[in-house]
Amino acid sequence: MNNNHNLYAALRAAFPADLDSTAVETVGGAQAGLRYSWRDLDRASAMVANLFASMQLPEGSRIAVQVEKSVEALVLYLATLRSGHVFLPLNTAYQAGEIEYFVGNAEPAVVVCSPANFGWVSKIAFKAGTRHVFTLGDDRTGTLLDRAAHHSDVHTPAHSRAEDLAVIIYTSGTTGRSKGAMLSHGNMLSNALVLKDYWGWQPDDVLIHALPIFHVHGLFVAIHGALINGSPMLWLNKFEPRAVVELLPRATVFMGVPTLYVRLLAEPGLSKQQAAHMRLFISGSAPLLIETFDEWKARTGQTILERYGMSETVMITSNPYAADARFGDQSERRGNTVGFPLPGNELRVVDDANQPIATGEIGAIQVRGPNVFKGYWRMPEKTAEEFTADGFFKTGDVGRVDDRGYVSIVGRSKDLIISGGYNVYPAEIEATINEMSGVAESAVVGVPHPDFGEVGVAVVIAKPGAALDTEQIIAALKAKLANFKIPKRCFVVTELPRNAMGKVQKNLLRELHKGLFVS
Ligand code: MLC
Ligand code: AMP
Known about the structure:
The chain is globular. Helix 4 packs parallel to helix 5. It is α/β, with parallel strands linked by helices. Helix content is 30%, strand content 24%. The strands form 6 sheets. A 9-stranded mixed beta sheet has the order 2-1-10-9-11-12-13-14-15, with helices on both faces. It is built from 16 helices and 25 strands. Strand 19 and strand 20 (407-412) form a beta hairpin. It folds into 3 domains: 7-238, 3-Layer(aba) Sandwich (Rossmann fold); 313-413, Luciferase, Domain 3 (Luciferase, domain 3, Roll); 416-513, ANL, C-terminal domain (GMP Synthetase, Chain A, domain 3). The structure holds malonyl-coenzyme A and adenosine monophosphate. Residues 211-212, 215-218, 239, 257, 259, 284-285, 309-310, 419-422, 452, 455, 483-484 line the site of malonyl-coenzyme A. Malonyl-coenzyme A (MLC) binds at residues 211-212, 215-218, 239, 257, 259, 284-285, 309-310, 419-422, 452, 455, 483-484.
């Protein structure tokens, strides 16, 4: 069906002719050494899709998934796409309160969780009205596969329109609760096709996949990139720097957040010779320090290609892949920049009055294009606020475009900390601290960190007469929030710096604590 925009159908059409060749090889951990052919991916995802069909799920059903990374979790994603249902990936670090919110808000028809979490996850799911809860372990166990085993391995992908919803990705917000960004088949397919061309994917590429698969970077950029090009993946369920260095001679493409590059640089085995077979190292999700960019070049002889994106937009900009007539003299991958707007994607930098500003000036980044999401799930007002009248999405990032057209991100208008590539919203941490007994108020700020790039630090004020223990505050946060959101340090003080309007001056707190982890 030529007019089928189903993303799985497009990925499937790009599988190589030899369906018995390796699509995924697992590396590291207890599941190392398994080979999945392209036919395996197609048949296994067909079986799960047929299981969903047998359950007669309503159209547009959400399939919420909180499982450890595994190739079977990838199969579940592909099955959801080909079924025409909506995939809702959830970070494995999320705690019960966070899951309760997502499940209550999205009302999934199906929830898939790790076998170890079935007790508490199923309680939350059933309470929210979910009828089907399956388990899926990272060792090929669980009720999902048991049930799917009874179904046919032949399945015709659903017919999807470009605008049909494929995925909901929750992103926290600067105020209130998380919002579900709705991405369509067309959003993701258009981006995957643009990147295939822009990054010069070649049929004999081999991708090292070492990122989690519940966020845009690992789930879309990496997986779609390999599949739409028919290229195999060397698959690590967990990032292990030594294993990645050992794999470099067998691979050509690697994608990571800056923390991964920092950790790889700490590996003595990383060298020009070891990286000689690699075609492309890509970084994104957080700012790549120029020191890391330069050190990588010196150690490996290769220049990291930095790109920029968001859950709401998939990829927006990228440094160029190579010297290419299309770019003229703009073929250089430049550190401290995120490159050019991707083809088909418009990017503008505006002032407070929403007016475009002069080249080189700093302002708010807005984007428009086929990759930009459909809006926030069941939040029409919030969606309307985040778009301009002429259809540009307000990214919340602050940047500039130089006279050669390179975009740089210089800050964020949203109060956000990016720690090891994960987004942490101070408002959520502060609200959780403020609910604790004896707390009058709190402020959470991001400070530089050598490994995670940035980490949170909490500054807390006690109510009159209350005695607060910082260790207890951290322990109480750990019980409620995903581990990467927990501030790495906590201070109890008597007052917070405020401006004349009474607003907490977070810049002063950041300045005060900026040397906590780096000299
Ligand atoms: C783990 N920890 C973190 C952390 N990850 N702390 C702050 N920030 C993080 N990102 C803490 C845990 O809380 C724990 O602390 C301790 O480190 C060990 O946990 P772990 O799970 O064993 O950590 P590790 O495996 O080393 O994980 C580090 C990491 C991981 C860098 C490999 O964070 C990671 O995979 N990051 C990638 C995130 C990503 O894919 N982002 C893409 C978003 S998409 P304690 O105290 O409990 O022991 C996006 C759009 C785009 O942004 O443009 O791509
Ligand atoms: P998320 O909501 O998890 O998709 O995170 C998106 C945010 O990550 C963007 O709005 C940026 O603030 C940030 N980001 C992504 N890539 C880069 C990059 N290369 N440099 C700086 N920030 C980035």
